[in-house]
Amino acid sequence: MGVQLHRGAVAEVILDFPPVNAVPAAGWHALADALVAAGADPRTRAVVLAAEGRGFCAGVDIKEMQRAEGHDALLAANRGCAAAFAAVYDCPVPVIAAVHGFCLGGGVGLAGNADLVVASDDATFGLPEVDRGALGAATHLSRLVPHQLMRTMVYTCRPVSAWQLHRFGTVLEVVPAAGLRRAAHRVAAEIAGKDPLIIRRAKESLNGIDPVDVKRSYRFEQGFTFELNLDGAGDRARERFLEGR
């Protein structure tokens, strides 16, 4: 349980926070550390980011946040998310996200910063942040869907399917759930068969030509989450969510 790192030419980083992979603040930092460690290993040529359980990631652990007094838990979660998303983006080798079930909130941050996404045929992607009293990861959602759809998803909290993203070209393959890891490892192995120095320079060069600074953009979004929390709107929305309203 927690974050697992399996080293090798194709390293594997696994999220495992039962029952729904709602990741606590420390878990986001552990994920960032695992990704940094994988990328720092000279043997690593690609990384598969996957998850155990019912879904890829349900975002932050709202129950942890509501149990804590003051703003420390919120700040820790937001810093943890920023660190984990940045670790995916900055990993010096390509990161392939293997997404199954639900990919929500912080899960979109991870998948949106990945170099490639392979998904199971039951996978859905969504940003329920407005219903949770927060904002963030629209930066990463905009890397997966067209701009107007991104806005619709933020305002309405509606999810989209892996098949829809496949039509946009932002999900490489949609496969049965039983074959998801195998499909992710297949494309990772294809990348790992290339010259490792050239692949690392390719990753660096592609990050360098990105039109949006994803780290700065996400931190800008997070500022509005802080504002909503200070206003009390964030806390009220989280309580409604936990009460099932």
Automatic annotation (TrEMBL):
GO MF terms held by the record:
lyase activity
Quote the protein name from its UniProt record.
Answer: Enoyl-CoA hydratase family protein
Q: Which NCBIfam families match?
A: PRK07938.1
Q: Which organism is it from?
A: Actinoplanes aureus
Q: What InterPro entries does UniProt report for this protein, alphabetically?
A: ClpP/crotonase-like_dom_sf, Enoyl-CoA_hydra/iso
Q: Which UniProt keywords apply?
A: Lipid metabolism, Lyase
Q: Which Pfam families match?
A: ECH_1
SUPFAM superfamilies with a match to the protein in the record: ClpP/crotonase (SSF52096)
